Amino acid sequence: MKYWTANQGKTYKEEITGGFLWAPKTNKAKQTSQFYTNVTLIKKDDIIFSLTNYGSGLCINAVGKCIIEFYNCENPLNHNKGEWINDGWRIDVKWEILETKPHIKQYFDRIESLLPIKYSPILKNGNAPQHCYVSAISDNLGNLFKELIGSQYNFEELIEQNIINEIENRTDITITEKEQIIKSRIGQGIFRKNVLIKEPKCRISNISKLELLIASHIKPWKKSNNHERLDGNNGLMLNPTVDKLFDKGFISFTDDGIILISNITEEELNSLGIDITKNIGSFSKEQCIYLDYHRKNILKKEEIEKEFLNLIEDN
């Protein structure tokens, strides 16, 4: 993942609301510009900081994530359409406008030394250069911008997903190894944090000591889309024994907290310290969507023990 800036003036509103960046391939004199060509270098999931003049000067006005890499596109802009040639490149961007907009001059003592030597998006006086559009910036400057923006944008989840994508694209390891690496990674990362917000302890064992708990996916990671893989509603904090039983489909749960079992006896579970008569509490509407998938697709297909079915009916 790389960081970029887009100096947006009169095209700002159209590009932000339309969800894109667009650059002509040349100017009207048939001359190319690196500021325009940079649009073709932006990759999926790269981060783009929108720089615009706001209030007392240049500021970071929005943050975008590239969702579709460049493609040939006629000029989609309505504002001053005659200023550019019609033939150009476009990328699609998911923008988020910042409520608090960090002003460049306010932090220029920290920014100046991190600016690129060539094709800089910011002049030595803190203003934007003329005819500057898209610039590549260093990780250090990108990280500083992230710090200034703070919690207004969820950079952590984006970085986590980018790491997952990199692991998935590796060709030197098997699919099984990829799954093991990713499960280990997300088990310690943002997915774990997201699950802990909703599930601070193991519902079955009541263990709350975090060192003894695993953030377990309800809908398996390999069956989930990018959002589901990091969604805290798609997880439970479980001790290692319960995690293994849940992951392998020996147990599941009803929406209102009844423990379901399959292909394992009550006696075997008792020997593991699991009381299947215990109600572990109801789940949220969002969690129930994932639990429905688990019951239908992960819980072993063999008949649930007859005595346990009777127990459910009695309740």
Question: How would you summarize what this structure contains?
Answer:
The protein is of the alpha+beta class.
Counting copies of identical and different chains, the oligomeric state is single chain
Q: What's the gyration radius in Å?
A: 26 Å
Low-confidence stretches: 302-312
Q: How many structural units, i.e. domains? A: 2
CATH class of the largest domain: Alpha Beta
- In helices, the fraction of residues equals 25-40%
Strand content: 15-25%
| SSE string, helices as H and strands as E | EHEHEEEHEHHHHEHEHEEHHH
Arithmetic mean pLDDT:
88
**End-to-end Cα distance:** 53 Å
CATH topology of the largest domain: ph1033 like fold
Q: How many strands in all? A: 10
- Envelope shape: elongated
**Mind summarizing the main beta sheet?**
6 strands, mixed
CATH architecture group name of the largest domain: Roll
